[in-house]
Prior knowledge:
It is built from twelve helices and two strands. By secondary structure, it is mainly alpha-helical. The longest helix is centred in the N-terminal third of the chain and has 27 residues, at about 75-105.
Amino acid sequence: SFCAATVFFGVALIPASWYFAQVLTSFLVSLAILEYLGKKRWYLIGIIMGCVLATRLAAGLAIIFFIYEILRDPKNRVSNFIKILLPIAVAGLLLAFYNYSRFGSPFEHGYNWQILGIRYSSNRDAGLHSLTHLPGNLYYFLLSGPLPVFKDGVSHILKFPYIEGNKWGMSIFFTSPYLVYLWFTKLKDRRSVAIIITTIIVALPILTYYGIGFSQFGFRYSLDFIPWLHLLLLLNLKDKIHLEGKLKFLIVFGSLLNFYIIMTQYFSPDYF
Length: 272
């Protein structure tokens, strides 16, 4: 469901260098979640999340979830804080030094210096991060769908492949239809609420960022927080021995639809 029925399918299948950060971040966040659900070695979670921070800064904000979990357990609280925060502090300092060496400021990641075409630079002129960008990002994250493929520029007769991916982005309800179950899932505990808060914290800098993520399948920046939505669904389905038929259908249908749309994008001559 995660590998094929989410936007991860696109960054995994299409060999473009600018997708690698999302692939690596998805792997590392999933690894941190797996460690949390297993042996819960806080130093290892700290190392992994430090790598996440150095890869995708927004995704690194998910450390708030693990801090919350440490706060809930009074046993060895101080030592656990040190174990998880020390690797993250080291990663943050190395990243700040790297930025200072490149751009003369520990807080400059280079995004202000990118040479962009007019369609991107006009967005950035409104601010690197701004509420001005929120409606546009929400549109592509929640509402945008595939585009029709017309026979010519006059008629509205469709031709094969009939639909193609919108390279500006597509709604999560098209790329991950199974996640619609989150709207009908009764949250069982405070941990689920903590996951929702974590998702919002990670999503906020992404949804206010000027770069929508052109030439992509779905809204690829959402991979910074989709692993948390996936975890939220799994935790609230864990008592069910068998998945419901409707959920199975959405997973299989979403996977096949994603594959079809990716093929229409990847083999399109103007994709890149």
